[in-house]
Design a protein that fits this description.
single chain, alpha/beta, 5 helices, 5 strands, binds 1,3,4-trihydroxy-5-OXO-cyclohexanecarboxylic acid
């Protein structure tokens, strides 16, 4: 069975409650259910942490899966450690942002992890995770 790791970083454990006008009302569990319904033949392993070093380990684990979807939260904008961890794995990787980071504060417009992933999705809400999964599946079938 195809396995995709869905990694969510700092503050994303509060999804559903945190600024719903920006991030919507779905929780990570809701997004997990959405993906499982949309792709019944794929195993999605969801992991979330507020600790950067732990996320580095999760990314390394993702190297043994069929693809990684990552919403790194605020780490996106400054974590070279996550960049380097992503760069070191060779499975399809997609960076997801629920909000349109380009329409928000200036500092959110820059991602230091984008150069280390294959694709970036922003502003599509929870649907961004579905689009990312579709991309990973297409890419992994071509490998
Ligand atoms: C986010 C955007 C980031 O700027 C922010 O720090 C987050 C969530 C998003 O999904 O839109 O925590 O990655």
């Amino acid at each position: 069975m195809t396995k995709i790791l869905v990694l969510n970083g700092v503050n994303l454990g509060t999804l559903g409650k945190r600024r719903p006008e920006v991030y919507g009302t779905l929780t990570l569990d809701d997004i997990h259910n959405l993906l499982s319904k949309e792709f019944p033949n794929v195993e999605f392993e969801f992991r979330q942490t507020d600790f950067e070093g732990k996320m580095v380990g999760f990314i390394r684990d993702g190297g043994g899966s069929d693809g990684v979807i990552i919403n790194a939260g605020a780490w996106t904008h400054y974590s070279y450690a996550l960049h380097d961890a992503l760069e070191a794995i060779s499975v399809p990787k997609v960076e997801v942002h629920i909000s349109n980071v380009h329409a928000r504060e200036e500092w959110r417009r820059h991602s230091v992890i984008s150069p280390a992933v294959n694709a970036v999705v922003a502003g599509m809400g929870a649907l961004g995770y579905v689009a990312a999964a579709r991309y990973v599946l297409e890419s992994s079938s071509q490998r």
